[in-house]
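Below is a filled-in request sheet from our internal design queue. Each sheet records the structural input a requester submitted and the sequence that came back. We keep these sheets so that new team members can see what a complete request looks like end to end.

REQUESTER: design group, bay 2
PRIORITY: normal
MODE: inverse folding
CHAIN LENGTH: 417
BACKBONE (tokenized):
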């Protein structure tokens, strides 16, 4: 592996997902856990020189006060994903990461997110440009302080209300003007982080459903600044199953009449999604998969309810009503139960590794080969999980056959996790 120190700044760094992902990366670094759940640990990617956890430095922003160390202790009790001995080996590194955490922004974030930290909202008096400059300063300070070769910004924050995209977001020039004229209601927090990252020349990944991060103006800016970007909304649970099951019905010419899904979850994500405006962003992201795969739109509803006692666990019950030969109607039901953060964390690590590779290779714009990781992959019409994964495999094969393992084009031996 090349000596390529990569900084990862996380929006929502004190959240369950970020804490689990950082904890997992440190556990991998110490050899305390396996790579189960990580796509890039499959043999398809063994020929690529992907960054390992020992070369990743974490930091980020959050609107809440807190400690990664205390968060990880709480998660251990709630999820039971690790033992005390293993925890003691990485707690010092968790403390060090806390020195790389900055105050986030709450501009136009909506009532649900404002409730998480009202004291910060009351201090938000800066203009959009001033806020962006502060975020850009944070990025460069993080890079310099940790002597990093590159920085990636990844959004793992709570879901924002949907942004109404219009002419003010149409391209980079329009977005610049919107920021300079301080149209706060036309810009979401996710837009500010995305702009600060891309304008500074650093890749940006949106793992949330928040559409403010992937507006046309940001995509245009990414092309201009020649940096990779991708999103949106990590595909980890019910939608993952949909994108795998729907092709089965299609390949057997069975007509899906209706597909009803009911989701319950706890943690902070569930609390934020209990607000209707935030829930709309999530449901819109989950609702488009079936029609894209099937070529027609069956009756489909997705419901999401917050159940505090579930904590970081989520349950989805799905009912599929379909029609077969001789107009015979049948049904399939399944229940998906999983730990939200544990399902998502290895995928975030995969995305970090693959985005670092793309940046080192000087790729720019949308990383469409990462579509299999997202519910709403920007710029990609294919939603069949197997076709999406094939595209990622093809990309990996192409990089290996080209012998392109490093930024200078020199072959480098693969270093396993």
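RETURNED SEQUENCE:
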């Amino acid at each position: 592996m090349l000596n390529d120190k990569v900084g990862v700044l996380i929006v929502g760094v004190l959240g369950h997902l970020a804490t689990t992902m950082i904890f997992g990366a440190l556990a991998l670094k110490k050899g305390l856990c396996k790579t189960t759940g990580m796509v890039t640990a499959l043999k398809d990617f063994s020929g690529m020189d992907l960054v390992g956890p020992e070369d990743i430095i974490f930091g980020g922003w959050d609107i809440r006060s807190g400690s990664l160390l205390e968060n990880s202790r709480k998660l251990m009790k709630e999820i039971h994903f690790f033992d005390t001995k293993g925890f003691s080996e990485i707690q010092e590194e968790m403390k060090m990461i806390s020195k790389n955490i900055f105050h986030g922004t709450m501009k136009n974030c909506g009532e649900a997110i404002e409730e998480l930290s009202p004291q910060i909202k009351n201090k938000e008096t800066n203009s959009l440009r001033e806020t962006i400059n502060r975020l850009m300063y944070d990025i460069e300070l993080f890079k310099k302080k940790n002597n990093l070769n590159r920085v990636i910004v990844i959004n793992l924050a709570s879901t924002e209300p949907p942004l109404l995209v219009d002419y003010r977001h149409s391209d980079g020039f329009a977005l610049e003007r919107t920021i300079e004229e301080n149209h706060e209601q036309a810009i979401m927090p996710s837009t500010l982080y995305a702009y600060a990252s891309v304008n500074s020349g650093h890749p940006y990944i949106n793992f949330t459903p928040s559409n403010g991060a992937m507006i046309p103006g940001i995509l245009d800016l990414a092309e201009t600044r020649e940096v990779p970007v991708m999103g949106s909304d990590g595909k980890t649970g019910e939608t993952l199953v949909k994108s795998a099951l729907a092709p089965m019905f299609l390949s057997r010419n069975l007509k899906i009449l209706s597909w009803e899904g009911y989701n319950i979850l706890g943690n902070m994500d569930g609390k934020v999604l209990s607000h209707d405006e935030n829930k709309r962003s999530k449901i819109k992201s989950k609702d488009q998969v079936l029609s894209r795969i099937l070529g027609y739109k069956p009756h489909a509803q997705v419901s999401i309810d917050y159940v505090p006692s579930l904590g970081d666990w989520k349950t989805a019950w799905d009912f599929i009503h379909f029609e077969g030969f001789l107009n015979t109607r049948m049904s399939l039901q399944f229940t998906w139960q999983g730990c939200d953060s544990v399902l998502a964390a290895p995928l975030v690590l995969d995305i970090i590794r693959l985005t670092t590779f793309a940046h080192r290779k000087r790729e720019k714009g949308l990383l469409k080969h990462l579509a299999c990781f997202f519910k709403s992959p920007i710029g990609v019409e294919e939603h069949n999980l197997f076709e999406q994964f094939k595209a990622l495999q093809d990309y990996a094969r192409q990089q290996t056959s080209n012998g392109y393992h490093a930024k200078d084009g020199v072959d480098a031996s693969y270093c396993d996790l």
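SHEET NOTES:
- Residues 340-360 form the longest helix (21 residues).
- Confidence is low (pLDDT under 50) at residues 405-416.
FILED BY: M.R.
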